[in-house]
Write a structure and sequence with these properties.
Shape: globular
Helix content: 40-55%
Structural class: alpha+beta
Distance between the termini: 33 Å
Radius of gyration: 21 Å
Largest sheet: 4 strands, mixed
CATH class of the largest domain: Mainly Alpha
Number of strands: 10
Low-confidence stretches: none
Oligomer: single chain
CATH architecture of the largest domain: Up-down Bundle
Strand content: 15-25%
Number of domains: 3
CATH topology of the largest domain: Butyryl-CoA Dehydrogenase, subunit A, domain 3
Strand order of the largest sheet: 1-4-5-8
Bound molecules: flavin-adenine dinucleotide
Number of helices: 11
């Protein structure tokens, strides 16, 4: 039997997160967002509000200071943040911290690692980052040039990583490095690197098109010394275990704020289209406008169902790798197009900063790139459905 309804607890969760955000985050955001977007600065007051509501450790087990939310509950909560209108960049930083860094740590960490790091991510004492992408290319993520060589009781890391969310403000970096080049994806290990470790540097902060409240940077390892107890998961299993787990969440749960955002945008467009007049009648009477809004609404419903299904697979302990790629591929192209069309519906006002759709477009444009491009998702799906083998693409 299939039941498409959300449990009452999840409906309540969505309402409480939405209410909290509308009452506590949005009033602060209204005052600082456009200025911080222009200056490309992190919104610490909003981060404090995330902390206050327990969002910084939302999916972590309660014994490590988290809320014990599973993937579906996290999806519902994150979607509510989008529906409330919480800044896309701030939610991206929240996701890098909790999902990209925290989820693999809670899944593969030793008891000692979880006590030492997960608890501090949950309280906000540490800010988490995930570092896979390298300057020579992010799509080819199994041919990492960053290396780790064992020396006594330490690993020595050399190399660099680029486009790392939260790097300029980060304290804990989940880093992937090649430990046995001959083994391909089975020769990569995950390490927990603290910002104060010898030989670790944030070399620069990067300027971006969108999500500008979320700081992004490049990091360097120059004979960086990492204690052996900071290997996350098994040696050489960093890609096969850790990264695949991350990709499942990153390509589904992490995109849920944009699903909530589109719902908010549609609400605004409906009101605008019914009120804005052209040629003596509301623009909602024009078929061209109706088509854009109807297409958005249909995409929204399809996306939400698909998204919840991927989260449901994750909560069953499965690795819905192809499903997550399919969702990301569908949603990335759809939402970028819908926000582009939303600007069109507002005409000249859509182009103005104060209406925030231009910011929304700059933010959402990342979805077809970050976490694996649309082209790479299409390749993953093609390989799976056509049964092709060959060089691995993840
Ligand atoms: C704002 C932002 C935040 C990010 N945050 C993080 C983070 O926190 N941690 C992290 O590790 N990474 C992060 N990334 C990196 C992101 O995941 C990569 O940018 C992405 O995977 C693409 O890699 P690339 O930019 O090197 O593009 P490339 O791999 O150089 O690709 C260039 C182009 O070639 C295409 N292409 C490549 N291979 C194929 C193929 N086989 N078939 C068809 N087309 C192909 C791509 O689709 C793309 O169009 C972030 C990126 C951005 C922009």
């Amino acid at each position: 039997m299939i039941d498409f309804s959300l449990e009452p607890e999840l409906i309540q969760l969505r309402e409480s997160v939405w209410k909290y955000a509308v009452e506590n985050i949005i009033p602060i955001q209204e005052k600082i967002q456009l200025e911080l977007d222009a200056k490309e600065e992190f919104a610490w007051p909003i981060w404090e509000k995330f902390k206050e509501f327990g969002l910084l450790g939302f999916p972590f087990p309660e014994e490590y200071g988290g809320q014990g939310a599973n993937a579906l509950a996290t999806t519902v909560a994150w979607e509510a943040l989008g529906l409330a209108g919480v800044d896309g960049g701030m939610v991206m930083s929240l996701s890098a911290h909790t999902i990209l860094c925290g989820v693999p740590l809670m899944t593969y960490g030793t008891e000692e690692q979880k006590r030492k790091y997960l608890t501090r991510l949950a309280t906000g004492e540490m800010i988490g980052c995930f570092a896979l992408t390298e300057p020579h290319g992010g799509s080819d993520s199994i041919h990492l040039k960053t290396t780790a060589v064992k020396k006594g009781d330490r690993w020595i890391l050399n190399g660099s990583k680029i486009f790392i969310t939260n790097a300029p403000i980060g304290d804990l970096f989940l880093v992937l490095a090649t430990t046995d080049k001959s083994l391909g994806s089975a020769g990569i290990t995950a390490f927990l690197v603290e910002k104060n470790f010898k030989g670790f540097y944030v070399s620069r902060k990067l300027e971006k098109m969108g999500n500008r409240l979320s700081p992004t940077g490049e990091i360097v390892f120059s004979d960086c010394e990492v204690p052996e107890e900071n290997v996350l998961g098994e040696v050489n299993m960093g890609f096969i275990q850790v990264v695949r787990t991350i990709f499942g969440w990153e390509r589904s749960v992490m995109l849920s704020p944009s699903v909530g955002s589109l719902e908010l945008v549609i609400k605004g467009l409906m009101a605008y289209a019914n009120q804005r007049q052209a040629f003596g009648k509301p623009i909602s009477y024009f078929q061209a406008i109706q088509k854009k809004i109807v297409d958005m609404k249909v995409s929204l419903e399809v996306a939400r169902s698909y998204l919840y299904r991927v989260a449901w697979h994750i909560d069953r302990g499965e690795l819905p790798f192809v499903e997550a790629s399919s969702f990301k591929l569908f949603w990335g192209d759809a939402v970028v197009n819908h926000i582009y069309e939303a600007i069109q519906i507002l005409g000249g006002y859509g182009y103005m900063r104060e209406f925030k759709l231009e910011k929304g477009y700059r933010d959402v444009r990342l979805i077809t790139i970050g976490g694996g491009t649309s082209e790479v998702q299409r390749t993953i799906i093609a390989r799976a459905i056509l049964g092709l083998s060959g060089r691995e693409i993840e």
